[in-house]
Please model this.
Amino acid sequence: MDAGSYDAWYESPRGRWVGAVEFRLIAARLEARTGETLLDVGCGTGWFTRRFAAQGMITTGLDIRSDWLAFARAKGGPAQQWVAGDAQALPFADESFDAVVSVAALCFMEDEREAVAEIVRVARRRFAIGWLNRASLLYRQKGRDGGRGAYRGARWHDAKEVRALFSDSSVRDLSIRSAVFLPSGGPMARLAEHLLPGALPLGALIVATGEKRAGKGLPPSRTSGCHLIGAR
Model:
């Protein structure tokens, strides 16, 4: 799928609803604050990055695909930064951002555990990472046998596996929530989203949030390989 088609999906009725539900969960768990800096790892077209910017955060989007970053730059505001880089070796010093997010991006990367460690390393206050949930209805519809469409090649995890990805990281208050229990986006899906608790780990997107544990050693900073696109 090309960047334009991917971003346009969020303008469809179902896409708008799914995006809003996912953003609401991530923003609430991140406890985002106006004026704070935020890094979006694996930002793709910048759809979520732009929404955090609209909430008053100072945003940077990072992705390894230059064509998708070019699209993100064209759609983003003049104050946003776009960085070409690898999530498994983030080109930033320790604690560079108040908050770090990543939405369904790590599941396409070779070493998810290393990407998790890097996200924790560059976060100063809090992080929120979303994965595709293998215990969800969406997995049964589109994730089996290697996945279909935009989900082809993705790794899906349940809540226990997500927690295990943090076993080597210095984090505290790790919490797991999920959203989009019925991915159809119809009236029943909207009702289910209001009735079912986020602590129920059955939604299509499963989100891990937490904070860095103070006083623990961090791996060395990685500050090379950074390429700003449209930075000001």
